[in-house]
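From the shared-data thread, chain only:
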Amino acid sequence: MNQQHRPFGIPAYEAAPVIASSEREAAFAIRMKVFVEEQTVPPEEELDAYDVAALHFIARLAGEEDASGIVGTARLIDKGHGVGKIGRVAVLIEHRGRGVGALLMRCVEKAASEHGFTELILEAQLHALPFYEKLGYIAEGDVFLDCAIEHRLMRKLL
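Structure, as tokens:
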């Protein structure tokens, strides 16, 4: 299920489900860097009980086989009744704006479809709404705070 993306003049990236414990640890490290260090989310709120059962995904520099090439991550949680919840989507700052997030989301969506999910939801930070809207997600409901950051629920049918 490995997917690749390479805009002109930018390194190639690939996205895939996590299969090795080293990939999982690298994914968690990216989340700590993006959410805890950059966005000041309390560290005790970043990793949670959902991480045990969630499907995890990574984006990496194409051809990099070790965890040092991992530049992005996301997770997918089974919410029941065909609904999957995407969360903890994070890309290292030096790799943002290069299509890595979209590549990662397409990989998660493909896996969700293969696992029988018919609908995906996510809680998007307000600044990220346009990113998710371009991928076909529709915002609904009021703005709410999560870790003192404004979010909105978004939904997409598969």
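The mean pLDDT is 93.
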